[in-house]
Please model this.
Amino acid sequence: MTPIQLLEQKIREIPDFPEPGVVFKDITPLLQDPRSLDLACDLLAAPYRERHVDLVVGIESRGFLFGPAVARQLGAGFAPARKLGKLPWQTVSERYELEYGTSEIEMHRDAISPDQQVLVVDDLIATGGTAAATVKLIRRMGGHVVATCFLIELSYLEGRKALAGVEVEAVLTY
Ligand code: AMP
Model:
């Protein structure tokens, strides 16, 4: 079995969650297995080992599971990008379109120092809307986005189009 096949085996597909028509990629079996967890973090960090990354930004909520592990591998810090109303201090926020309605993502206004090299991490890219809003926030604060990286890419939803001009890496592609 290849490392990629091992990881694929550890992703459970849940039809019609959280709503009809969505096949939810459940990564909890992967997190539970020591080898798969280690491998997933290694493969996420691999493309950036020889590059300069000051800060990893993890997207709520499953970006918080991988982000700090990737940050430690790269000798970088970590900052969370959260859903509206969760952060305790002063924030900057970015609104983005969902299939129905809008959503908003926030970061603390001092999360990024000007000219920091920032890597964005999340578990999954679907339409790319969440990651694109996070990239905008980071740039507004003066950060340079090195890349966005994901454990899983649902390529049929064409999330890369929302991230035009930004480097996108995915460990597993469906
Ligand atoms: P999007 O903004 O459409 O790229 O959605 C990405 C966010 O929604 C990520 O934070 C994912 O964790 C979550 N997400 C979207 N679709 C799925 C799915 N099919 N399975 C698991 N998580 C998903």
Notes: The chain has six helices and nine strands. Residues 34-45 form the longest helix (12 residues). Residues 22-25, 59, 62, 122-131, 159 surround adenosine monophosphate (CB under 6 Å). Helices lie at 3-9, 28-32, 34-45, 63-74, 129-140, 159-162.
